[in-house]
Specification:
The chain contains ten helices and eight strands. Helices cover 39% and strands 15% of the residues.
């Protein structure tokens, strides 16, 4: 793995990114958009798997995550502009840099969890750049629900500031996620059936930190944009889109939200939409008991659609 750094579009932060390069000829590229309260380096096993099959993999740490922070106080804080577009522009900067090095190769994008919503927005803007998109660990929420959540965040920020880390908002957003997994051993049991993964996640200082009001504002806004009819209809009609998730993932409402998102894509006349839910798996399917099957399925999707690069 190679670490690279480049200036964020926030005008003050340096973005950290990882590039995993295969030995020999590059068959194609997979760009990863990571999830909430984690970072690009967690995808190393998946990236190394793809490397073995000839694919270069890249991923950046979003603002407020991983090594793209000025201080520990900035974990869970994106940008003072409270702009989802700045995060999108930082993802775009990595894509353009990698594309220069791999011109003409098939290029795929994968977003997990919060990253799945950024990915859905991203392909509405730049979908013609890609040969396929993998939407992992996603869901679907109504505009009413998201507007209500945003109102709570803004009210809290009015009294406590945008750096405040509200226990109430965290409970409202994620408090029900462990309900199906009783008795829970930790607050993050919903992430994975694999206890080793939960232990590693809970021990990692760059995972599981509390979001700021600023972070929740960005999170709820990008979900709202991703679930909007306008965004979905802007996705290229010929872009293959593959939804994958755990059947026991509360983010996707145990499969119902994943299927609803896919249905919205189909209603928008996107021609190649497919869905796979993994029985018994929870949120982090790349770190759960089904990870080998997930890797194989994603690789199959990529190789199926690598025949006609968009260049």
């Amino acid at each position: 793995m190679k670490d690279i750094f480049y200036p964020s579009h926030d005008g003050q932060t340096t973005i950290h990114a990882c590039i995993w390069r295969p030995e020999g000829e590059i068959k194609g590229v997979v760009q990863i958009i990571h999830g909430m309260t984690e970072y690009a380096g967690r995808y190393a096993p998946f990236a190394e798997f793809l490397n073995k099959h000839g694919y270069l993999v890249c991923a950046e740490d979003h603002l407020g995550h991983g090594k793209s922070v000025l201080s520990e106080n900035e974990l869970g804080y994106f940008n003072k502009q409270r702009s989802t577009s700045i995060v999108i522009e930082d993802i775009r900067a990595l894509q353009l840099a990698v594309k220069k090095q791999t011109e003409g190769k098939p290029y795929f994008i994968l977003g997990h969890s919060m990253g799945s919503f950024f990915c859905r927005k991203y392909i509405s803007l730049f979908g013609k750049d890609f040969d396929g998109a993998i939407i992992m660990g996603t869901g679907f929420k109504s505009g009413f629900t998201l507007n209500s959540a945003l109102s709570v965040v803004r009210l809290n920020a009015l009294f406590c500031g945008w750096h405040n880390r509200s226990k109430l908002i965290k409970k409202l957003a994620f408090g029900s996620y462990n309900n199906k997994f009783k008795p829970p051993k930790t607050e993050n049991d919903w992430l994975s059936k694999d206890e080793g993964n939960i232990t590693a996640y809970n021990a990692d200082p760059l995972c599981g930190f509390s979001f700021t009001n600023n972070g929740y504002n960005i999170l709820f806004n990008i979900i709202k944009q991703a679930c909007s009819k306008k965004t979905i209809e802007a996705v290229p009609k010929d872009l293959p889109v593959y939804f994958v998730a755990g059947a026991d993932d509360p983010v996707g409402d145990y499969g119902k939200g994943v299927k609803k998102a896919a249905e919205k894509f189909e209603e928008a006349d996107i021609a190649d939409v497919s869905v796979k839910l993994y029985d018994g798996a929870r949120h982090e399917i790349l770190n759960d008991f089904c990870k080998d099957e997930v890797c194989a399925d994603v690789l199959e999707f990529i190789e199926k659609h690598s025949g006609s690069a968009n260049g």
